[in-house]
Amino acid sequence: MTTLEQLYQAVIDGKNKDARALAQRALDEGANPGDIVDKALVPAMAAVGERFKSNEIFVPEMLVAARAMKEAMGVLEPRLVAAGITPKYTALIGTVQGDLHDIGKNLVAVMWRGSNFRVIDLGSNVPATKFVSAINEHRPHLVGLSALLTTTMPAMVETVRAIRSAGCPPVKIMVGGAPISQQFADEVGADGFAPDAASAAEKARALVESA
Amino acid sequence: MEPRERYMAVLEGGRPDMLPRMPILMQFAAEHIGSYYGAFASDHRVLVEANLRCAEEFGIDQLSAISDPYRETAGFGAPIEFPRNGVPICLKPPLEEDPDLARLSRPDPLKAPRMRDRVDAVSAYKARAGGRYSIMGWVEGPAAEAADLRGVSNFFVDLLDDPAYASALMARCVDTAIDFARAQVAAGADTVGIGDAVASQVSAKLYESLILPHERRLVAAVHEMRARVRLHICGNIRHLLSGIASLGLDIVDIDHMVSLAEARRVLGPNIVLAGNVDPVACVMRGSPEAIASAVRQCYAEAGEPFMVAAGCEIPASTPPANLAALCRPIVPR
Ligand code: B1M
């Protein structure tokens, strides 16, 4: 197996120390840091997302894979920055006000990072005003809203409305979470919906690339 | 039959006059009596009044002490905030940053205020309606409480990184769950509900190797107290059913994404299945007729022994007529 193949496997298996060492080894062997991201880390996270979607792995396995990717990125980032390679797209994400569920939102953030977005995570129980001020501050290409409770779906409606009407810079909005559907996304005027974290990564790329 | 007799009849393999109705109520009950969730979770008098009035009005056979996930977590020292219309919030999981178990004291259920409040709820049920209704105490299961103490994501990573630590943490949680269950049984609970919903998010392998042994110890301890056990792991637990089958439970709640027929096949003929009408799509948003027919469909799929319930909590904005439809009497076949 090549070093990149080993790195790919280490991320899937959630082996964070190996992932770090392998990322370093790939650099030492002369690999381009952007290629390491594109050829090992991004495909590894895509594979992890697919396995999660088909119930081959569950939340804990996904979390350790994300951590392994983060470790590898820790090695690569200084070289990426030095080479002027930064993620092309920025995304904001948060769980809407009143809702404390953050596992699904965290997994979506992981998959977005895994497909090479810069992700700013606003956490859970985020008021609409905080989304709006963060959009003004960071000028993201995409903003993601998560809700797990039927009782917080109105807060999602409210947040979409605030983002659309506050004189915010234009931004694509994606919504998701267990009670959310494509129909609900259409009704509230979001640009996209994804039923799971792997699909959320595909959808994110499609949305920002169509902008 | 009185509600408690009806409930016991099913558990003892007898024939009830109608199927027991066991919906889980929290915010709905609080708001139904003109109160609010924050009061329901922080003052047992509100919880008791709300559940008793709903039981009388809708025909519910069990009075429950469930309110929110953080009774034990508060006992372990976590600061809890009570929003007026929302679920209590744990401001900081006590082991989030420093996992050292030596920092955890063993709360006394009669002294820790939020635990004591639940014990007081059970005593009040007993005093006001004990002979008439079944009374269910409530404790957090090993995975749920461990996740509350560590933060869910940390705990999930612990399960893979340091199974010995995760197991030691769950053992501590079960020690407290047993103490808490004992206090509630002494106060008059005939049943102890165990909530372990985060377990739905782990693989069968992790569940069976790490979580199940702790759940088993808790179930056995409650049985030694001569109380019944109702396990509640909402969400999709198809992959956990064969492990759950080995727990020796009296009642298991089945959420709407799991087929009752499959649950019956895997869990066997003796366990009571409770469920599994979709709480949101059907109970909250459906028509009374659709709900009543969904209940009959659940009964047909589950077979005996069976109790009527939604897959999880009755959502706060459910129209009262819909809860009444869920509780419409059904004479067993
Ligand atoms: C931006 O674009 C996108 C795109 C896709 C997106 C997206 C955004 N966000 C998510 N996705 C999608 O991708 C993710 C990955 O594939 C998916 O994310 P999910 O979040 O759906 O899936 C996660 C990976 C895993 N799933 C989860 O993390 C949720 C698991 C369950 C067990 C659950 C948990 C863990 C918790 N809970 Co709560 N909880 C339940 C859940 C029941 C169950 N067994 O499923 C649910 C969600 N809870 C519920 C309830 C009612 C509550 N909970 C509460 C509390 C909690 C805990 C704090 C104890 C804990 C959360 C801890 C945490 N840090 O997140 C309370 C509310 C607190 C609050 N204010 O938020 C409380 C009100 C209970 C109470 N009375 O105390 C129910 C909601 C019912 C409803 N539809 O309204 C519930 C379905 C249980 C049930 N069967 O009734 C997709 O939806």
Strands, helices and their partners?
The complex is a heterodimer of chains A (211) and B (333).
Chain A: H1 3-12, H2 16-28, H3 33-53, H4 59-82, E1 89-95, H5 103-114, E2 117-121, H6 128-138, E3 142-146, H7 153-165, E4 172-176, H8 182-188, E5 192-193, H9 197-209
Parallel strand pairs in A: 1-2, 1-3, 3-4, 4-5
Helix pairs in contact in A: 1-2, 1-3, 2-4, 3-4, 3-9, 4-5, 5-9, 6-7
Chain B: H1 3-11, H2 27-32, H3 37-42, H4 44-58, E1 62-64, H5 71-75, E2 80-81, E3 89-90, H6 113-129, E4 134-140, H7 142-150, H8 152-161, H9 163-187, E5 191-195, H10 204-224, E6 228-232, H11 241-244, E7 251-254, H12 260-267, E8 272-277, H13 279-284, H14 288-302, E9 306-310, H15 320-326
Helix pairs in contact in B: 4-6, 6-9, 7-8, 7-9, 8-9, 9-10, 14-15
The complex binds CO-5-methoxybenzimidazolylcobamide.
CO-5-methoxybenzimidazolylcobamide sits between chains A (59, 93, 98-105, 107-108, 144-146, 148-150, 174-179, 194, 196-197, 200) and B (26, 68-69, 86-87, 152, 197-198, 200-201, 234-235, 255, 279-280, 311-313, 315).
